[in-house]
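S.,

Sequence below, as promised.
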Amino acid sequence: MKLPEAIARRRDLGGVLLLWAAGMVAIGVGTFFFLGGTGSPTSNKNLTNGGPTAVPNTGVLQSQRPNEGDAAPDFALVDARDGQTIRKLSDFRGKAVILNWYASWCAPCKAEIPEFQQAADALSSQLVVLGVDYMETSDQASSILDEFGATYAAVLDTNGAVAEHYRVTQGLPTTFFLDKDGVLRAMKTGQVKPDELVDFLAKVGVTYTP
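The prediction came back faster than expected:
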């Protein structure tokens, strides 16, 4: 027995509205969990460049931007080799610092790693090198250092949050030179050549002969 046409239309409309409402609820629930609602820890999500770091108590620690002549902003990141130890830039205060953003796929980075290690060995009482791997895993970050026999400290900028704060936007490698008081004295985007390294270290009060 067929329903009257008006009742049939009303039933069809009700079905459409029910489906629409169910869809909106599903979207709302998905959005809630994606944005980190109750029961959905935000640390498990893929983080975007410049967003919060995945490990508690890491990331940029001071709001000022890096400018030559000013103290470099402090940050904390996880050690690239053990994936656990948290290292701060300020831990190295008292020595000049070569702060170098690198990545395993970066050919110029590979070229300068041996130069940095040589300087670190020759000037161990005055200088430290801190490599900052850009958005890679611990294995990737440490493998390139091992390949060239580099033993200097390195940390993981896993989602690029610290790189963004330091304006590492023109490509890799990017290197900052800090004096023993943590003041930024010079920076270079692109490979640091041996003769340039001598000049940059002189700016942070270190005399170096390769």
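The domain at 59-203 is CATH 3.40.30.10 (Glutaredoxin).

Coffee later?
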